[in-house]
Each structure stands twice: as C-alpha cells, then as structure tokens.
TrEMBL record, chain A:
This is Fe-S cluster assembly ATP-binding protein. PANTHER family: ABC TRANSPORTER I FAMILY MEMBER 6, CHLOROPLASTIC. SUPFAM superfamilies: P-loop containing nucleoside triphosphate hydrolases. PROSITE patterns: ABC_TRANSPORTER_1, ABC_TRANSPORTER_2. It comes from the Bacteria. Residues 2-248 form the ABC transporter domain. NCBIfam families: sufC (TIGR01978). The keyword Phosphoprotein does not apply. CDD domains: ABC_FeS_Assembly. Gene3D superfamilies: P-loop containing nucleotide triphosphate hydrolases (3.40.50.300).
UniProtKB/TrEMBL annotation, chain B:
The lineage of its organism: Bacteria, Pseudomonadati, Pseudomonadota, Alphaproteobacteria, Rhodobacterales. Residues 24-165 form the SUF system FeS cluster assembly SufBD N-terminal domain. This is Fe-S cluster assembly protein SufD. GO terms for biological process: iron-sulfur cluster assembly. Belongs to the iron-sulfur cluster assembly SufBD family. It holds the Pfam family SufBD_N. PANTHER family: PROTEIN ABCI7, CHLOROPLASTIC (PTHR43575:SF1). Residues 173-399 form the SUF system FeS cluster assembly SufBD core domain. NCBIfam families: sufD.
C-alpha cells in the first residue's frame, strides 16, 4: 500500500536535514507502529507524506498504491485515501465542525467521481459515529476544534477519519493527552475501521495504545532513519528499557 | 479663521456649481444653514487629519468621474424577503419600480414631498443630527448633502413594522452624480429594519439621520456593491435614547472609493449601539474607508464596532474608529475591533483606533490587526481533501464571520454570506 524508499527531507528555510533515508513498506490490512525519541523525525515524516509546505524532498520516493505521492497536492493525497491524524489538531475559528466535515467528505467523493452525500444522509452518519466516540452534538456545532480539550481534539480526529474512510491512516501521537477511557474509545474507533484493504501507521511513545491496537510491525526511528524493525515485542522492550540499548546496538 | 488656500479653492469651485433646491421655508432654512456650515468648514482635502488615508478630491470635484456599469448575472438581493421596495435609479425615485409606500407600523414619504410641506415633523430631524455630529470633527461632505439633497425617504415608525423597508439604489448611468438624504424616526418602543442595496450611482452622496427613541430598535443592513469604478461617501448620524437598540451592518464589494462614516450618540441609559462592516476588495484601485465615532453620554450603555476587511491585489482598507466616553457615562462597555486579511503583500490596511474616556468606571477595549491566511489551518483543511481554493475561501469567510454575526436576522445574514462566497469564487 504505502512504499517509502530512501526518503530524505530537509527544511525549506534552513539547511537542516530531518529525514535521512527512510525506508518503510506497509502492506494492505496491516498495522505498523513507529516509536522513537523526541525530535527523531516522526511528525516530519507524517507531514511530508500528507503534503505540508516547508519541506524539500532531496532524495527517495513515496508511493501509495504505486502512485507518486510527493507530486500531489495535499487534497489529492487525501482523495486517494491518505489520512493524517495530527499530533496537534488545528483550531479554526469561524468554520463550523459540521460544515468542515461535510465539505471534506463531499470534496473527496467528488474528486473520486462519486455522488455527494445529501445533507440528511451525512447528518445521520455523523451523529452515529460521533456517538460511538462520545462526541456530543454541541461539539459538532462548534467551530473546528475551538474550545475542545486535548482529548476531545484527538477524538475529533478519529471522527474525521471514520467519516472519510481513508485506506492509509497515519496517526501521530493520537494517544497523547488521552485519559484511560478516551484511549479505549479511540482504540475502539480505530479497530472498528480495521479491514483487509486499510492500513495504519501509528506513531506513539507508549506501549499502552498498542495494547489496544495490536501492531503487526514496530519500527524504531532515530535521527531521521528507521533503525530497527520487529514484532510487537519491540514496543515492550522500549517501554521497559527506553531507547538507549536499541540505539547503542545499531550504532 | 481663513481656510487654507487649497481648501478654499476646492470649496469655492464646488459651491459655485451648487444651486440650492427650493422647498418650504423650514427646509430652505435648513439647507441654507448647511451651506453656511460647508462654507465655514471648507470641503476636505488630503491635508486634513481626518482624510489622511483617503483622498477626497474625486468626491469634492465639481464633476463626478465616470463609472462603468459592470455586468454581473447575480439577481437582486433579498428578492425573497417580504419587504417594501423603494427604488431610486441614479438617485432619482422610480415610482413604477417601487411598491406602494405603505406598511403597518410605518409611514413612508418622499423627501421631495416632505420638503414641499409647510409643516412637518421632519423639521426637527433634517440636518439636525448632522449639525450635532459636526463636533468635535468636521464633516463638511455631510453638510453639503443636507444643503443639496432633493430626494430620499422620510420614515416614521410608530410600532413594530410589519416588514422591512428596502431602499434599492440602481445605477444605470455611467456618469450619474446622486445625492440622497433619508430620515428615520423610530418612536418609543417601535422597531424597524431598513435594508439598503445596490451600486447607486457613479458618485453617490448618501446621508441617513436616525432617531431611536426610548426602548425602540433600529436594524440596518446594507450591501454596497458591484460596480468597480463607483464612488460613495455615506454618513449615518444616529441619536440613541434610553434602552434603545441600534444595529447597523454594511457589506461592501468593489468600489474605487467608499467612505462610510457612522456617527452615533448614545444619550439615554441602558442603550446599545452596534456598528459592523465587512468588505472585500480586489485591485490596487480599490479603496474602502470606515470612519466611526461613537459618543457615550449616558450610564450603563454598550457599544460594539466590528470591522473586517479582505484585501487582495493591492487593495487598500482604512479604519478610523473612536469611542468617546463623556464625563458621567459610567458603566460604559465599549468594544472595538478592526481587522484585515491581506491576501498578498501589496494590499494594505491603515487603522487608527482611538479611545477618549472621561469616566472612571468603564470597560473599553479596542484592537486592530492585519494578517494573512493561517497556513496551518489551510493545510489542515486541505489534508482532509478540501481543495485549496475552497479552503482559502472557507477561511476568508470565517474571518468575516464575526462581522456578519452582528446581523440579527439569520436569513439576511445567510444571504449576504452566500453573496460573499460567490464574490470570493469569482475573485480567486
Ligand atoms: N519547521 C521546522 N523548523 C525548524 N525545525 C523543525 C521544523 N520541523 C521539524 N523541525 C525539527 O526536526 C526535528 C524532527 O521533528 P519532528 O517533529 O518530526 O519530531 P518527532 O519525532 O515527531 O518528535 P516528538 O516525538 O517530540 O513529536 C526536530 O529537531 C525539530 O525541531
Ligand atoms: Mg511528533
């Protein structure tokens, strides 16, 4: 599904390289996790995949189902089925959550040549999905993420993901800032979406989320590279011993 | 004191071309007084502090510059609103295009008819609020309007008006020079909504005097637009009495020169005055100026100024806003915000927010900002599949939202929001 080969990225404004040759291959229906010390480039990878400005790709490639992602506009990547749950969801005053969601859903449908959802059908689906994530009607009426607590913002990301039904979901620290119950809600939301044709890349610092969302493969990222990959036990090792052992082992 | 030479020359030239209309004795006197005020103050020039950011020369010139009539397939605004339509074409009343000037709760007359009556209540309003509003800042163009206006409407509201009154200003003649003067007297406890729409004229001088009596409510929603080359100088003078509500919102599209002055005097306790504006301008000859002066002269009153401008391709926006809290006007709550969204580096926003406070127990705040589209918000929307152009327009509309929220009637607000959206779609 997602193939990343030798991806090298520097900042546009500064002479600073962040990704130094990332290789990652995610098969359909699988869940991959990325762990790694602060500042190792995890969020940068997620931004570059989804098309944020400010980065120069200086080497390598990234394809989704064989199509070159890096040439596309962010909205085209989204319409192809790429989704990023942000580490820091953005507040947008003056744009209603519902208007935003409906515009997004219908824009993607249109880009894929599908019929737009009617206002009624849309409302029905949103209400149902919001309910399972314990997002109340009042939150849906408010401007995007405005006045939402940290955990509410993260749940709102999962709601968007559920509405957009992407095939490649990148979750950047969706677990941070969540209480135990909210973590369970979010994990249930993710697990409900798991299917043969849908893959996940879960960026996290903690084993806890991975207890709920069982990864097939765990990668360790350090200084802009994937330095080690393994099974779920790798996450446990990080949880117990930190990164020091792994980093010295690969150095 | 003698006027500066440039000012004297401009004033002499313009006044030489003016002949006062003839009417009943009371209005002749009001017009003569106004003309005397103009001669004493002199017409504005760029050297005046109050006109530092806006060049009035095309307004004070003897002849109105041409303004092409733009073709645009949008239908008239508020077509589905049940309202009394009063149509002026290039500043001249069009009886055939207008509705019967009747609605329950209001009496509507033409200024031309009122001016011919020997006795009329309008005597106590015509030019009266304008003259009061000449201090502390001179507004000679308003006095010139009082002196020379021959047409307009005179509205008296005695109860909750059955439906809104819509003044529709059509522009058909590329060299029209129109002057209209409207009066609205909202009596105690009464309520009315005044709508004003249309591009009006090549050069338009329009003045509105509003008296909002105790417990009365005046709602004003205006849309100026369409023709890019048009020029307009408008004034609104309002006197707001005890427990009264005044709410005015203006949407402006296009125009090489628009100066909207709003001069509000709150004279009764527990009253509220809101004035808001949203404008969208495209091109380096777009120039839009909101100039507001709110005087608080009573206890426990609230005022709000909310002005938002979207400027692109070298457009210029101006805001001059003042809150004056007089001695004894305790518990005043005054809020003022003026913001611009600059869609490129060539556009500019010039703001002069002012507070002058002579009471000690007041809460007044003001703020002015200029900014660009929030890139993080833009990326967030696009990452969800919203195409860039739509995402930009969504963020632009959201920037304007706070001003549109000042419109009490949801339906009217929605219609203006749709117009804004289609303007943005045409201009991006
Ligand atoms: N726009 C930017 N300007 C300056 N430095 C940047 C920018 N974006 C990323 N960086 C730097 O790149 C490095 C990687 O950042 P990134 O956010 O990808 O790390 P991360 O692995 O997601 O960290 P964390 O676990 O703390 O979220 C950091 O050193 C960061 O400071
Ligand atoms: Mg990060």
């Amino acid at each position: 599904m997602l193939e990343i080969k030798g991806l090298e990225v520097k900042l546009e404004e500064e002479d600073k390289q962040i990704l130094k040759g990332v290789d990652l291959s995610i098969a359909p229906g699988t869940v991959h996790a990325i762990m790694g010390p602060n500042g190792s480039g995890k969020s940068t990878l997620s931004y570059v995949l989804s098309g944020k400005d400010g980065y120069d790709v200086i080497g390598g490639e990234a394809t989704l189902d064989g199509e070159d992602l890096l040439e596309l506009e962010p909205e085209e990547r989204a319409a192809m089925g790429l989704f990023l749950a942000f580490q820091y969801p953005v507040e947008i005053p003056g744009v209603g959550n519902m208007t935003f969601l409906r515009t997004a859903v219908n824009a993607q449908r249109k880009a894929r040549g599908e019929d737009e959802l009617s206002a009624g059908d849309f409302l029905k689906v949103v209400r149902e999905k919001a309910k399972s994530l314990k997002i109340d009607a009042d939150m849906l009426k408010r401007p995007v993420n405005m006045g939402f607590s940290g955990g509410e913002k993260k749940r709102n990301e999962i709601l968007q993901m559920a509405m957009l039904e992407p095939k490649m979901c990148v979750l950047d620290e969706t677990d941070s800032g969540l209480d135990v119950d909210a973590m369970k809600l979010v994990a249930d939301g993710v697990n409900a979406l798991r299917s043969e044709g849908r893959s996940f890349l879960v960026i996290t610092h903690y084993q806890r989320l991975l207890d709920h969302i069982k990864p097939d493969i765990v990668h360790i990222m350090a200084d802009g590279r994937i330095v080690k990959s393994g099974g779920p036990e790798l996450a446990l090792e990080v949880e117990n011993n930190g990164y020091a052992d792994i980093l010295s082992e690969v150095a | 004191m003698a006027l500066a030479k440039l000012k004297q020359d401009v004033t002499d030239a313009r006044l030489a071309a003016v002949s006062l209309p003839e009417g009943a004795a009371w209005i002749n006197a009001a017009r003569n007084d106004a003309l005397t005020r103009v001669a004493a103050m002199g017409l504005p020039t760029r050297r005046d502090e109050y006109w530092k950011y806006t060049d009035p020369s095309s307004i004070t010139a003897v002849d109105a510059p041409q303004a092409a009539i733009l073709d645009n397939d949008e239908g008239p605004l508020f077509a589905d609103v049940d309202r009394v339509k009063i149509v002026f074409v290039d500043g001249v009343f069009d009886e055939d295009a207008s509705d019967d000037l009747t609605a329950e709760g209001v009496t509507i007359e033409r200024l031309a008819d009122v001016a011919a009556s020997d006795i009329h209540w309008a005597k106590d309003l015509y030019g009266v609020l304008e003259a009061r509003g000449q201090k502390p800042v001179a507004r000679p163009l308003a006095a010139l309007n009082t002196a020379t206006a021959t047409d307009g409407v005179v509205i008296r509201v005695t109860a909750k008006a059955e439906k809104p009154i819509n003044l529709i200003y059509l522009h058909n003649d590329a060299s029209s020079d129109a002057v209209l003067h409207n009066l609205v007297k909202v009596e105690a406890g009464a309520e009315v909504t005044l709508l004003e729409t249309g591009p009006a004229a090549s050069r338009f001088s329009k003045l509105l005097e509003v008296d909002v009596a105790e417990g009365a409510a005046f709602h004003h929603v205006r849309a100026q637009g369409r023709d890019h080359e048009r020029r307009a100088v408008t004034h609104c003078f309002a006197r707001i009495e005890k427990e009264a509500t005044f709410k005015s919102f203006t949407l402006t599209f296009n125009g090489v020169l628009t100066r909207n002055e709003c001069v509000l005097e709150i004279i009764g306790d527990d009253a509220s005055a809101h004035v808001a504006g949203a404008c969208v301008g495209d091109g380096k000859d777009f120039h839009h100026d909101d100039t507001v002066f709110i005087t608080h002269d009573a206890v426990n009153c609230e005022s709000r100024q909310v002005f938002k401008k979207v400027l692109r391709n070298g457009a210029t926006g101006v805001f001059q806003g003042k809150i004056l809290v007089k001695e004894g006007a305790q518990k005043t709550d005054g809020y003022q915000i003026s913001q611009s969204l600059l869609l490129d580096d060539d556009s500019q926003f010039l703001a002069k927010p002012e507070l002058e406070i002579y009471a000690d127990d007041v809460a007044c705040s003001h703020g002015s900002t200029s900014g660009a589209i929030d890139e993080d918000a833009l990326f967030y929307l696009r990452s969800r599949g919203v195409p860039e152009k739509i995402a930009r327009n969504m963020l632009t509309l959201s920037f304007l939202a706070e001003a549109l929220e000042e419109i009490a009637d949801e339906g009217l607000a929605e219609e203006l929001r749709d117009r804004l959206e289609s303007w943005l779609n045409r201009h991006s």
